[in-house]
Amino acid sequence: xxxxxxxxxxxxxxxxxxxxxxxxxxxxxxxxxxxxxxxxxxxxxxxxxxxxxxxxxxxxxxxxxxxxxxxxxxxxxxxxxxxxxxxxxxxxxxxxxxxxxxxxxxxxxxxxxxxxxxxxxxxxxxxxxxxxxxxxxxxxxxxxxxxxxxxxxxxxxxxxxxxxxxxxxxxxxxxxxxxxxxxxxxxxxxxxxxxxxxxxxxxxxxxxxxxxxxxx
Length: 216
Prior knowledge:
The protein is an alpha/beta fold and 216 residues long. The protein contains nine helices and eight strands. It has a five-stranded parallel beta sheet, with helices on both faces.
């Protein structure tokens, strides 16, 4: 089962990808993770990517696509994979299609998670992470028992620098401009399924709905 997960920042793609991994035993492929891995292992493409990253520049599409192609060749992708955070644009989607053709892979489904913007902003602006164990909370939806303190290990909670209102609105604006066109692109191919999320819907409830879509 080869899947792409689409959705705005804060919609919960990463959480659903991890649940899919456990249930279907297929890897989650996150662009950020595989870029960092390629840099760490100093592959030829990783070295090229590092040059851009060290300068604070975006890694060009051709390098990202090459790293993704290398990742899709790995043995653990024989049963399928979950692409999380890629593609972000139509040109990236077209390059991915070429890669999958070369590897004789088909795309089974594209899942598009949709949530209203106000809830997305609350999800992102309210996020807090434990500096000790990494457990995550949200001051609006899943607050800790004691303000600013992790329930599990008692360490201090912190907020990511990019989870401020101004940055969040910019990230959502970029998503609308660059990634939203992918919805029409995959819809035209008959691959897209949209799952509309409720404000109070938890990860397990969403996952139940997602599995019904995939197994129907």
